[in-house]
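Entry:
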Amino acid sequence: MSTRYYPLYIKGNPQLRVFLPNFWMKLFKPKFSIPSNEVHFIVSTEMTKHDVKNYLVKIYNVPVLDVRTKIVMGKFKRDPGEGYIVKEDDYKVAYVTLPDRKSVV
């Protein structure tokens, strides 16, 4: 999950090593109403369901029941000045179900 390289052994006093993931997650509010124990994230397209679950459990200590993911195709827009068509980037949405009476915020 991390591309940071550290030496395996440092003679004497080894330095503290912190391994951070190269992934990102962004919490967003959906346009429609959802159950109180469901949370939606826009995540990195390289993340899998298992990565999303491990990210929330290991880093934020949030218990997760289920994770569903979907890749959303970016919108096509016409450039107002030049007139050619531009496509926005695709993104992945993760629907995370938490146990009852749990919330992220």
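The longest strand covers residues 66-72.
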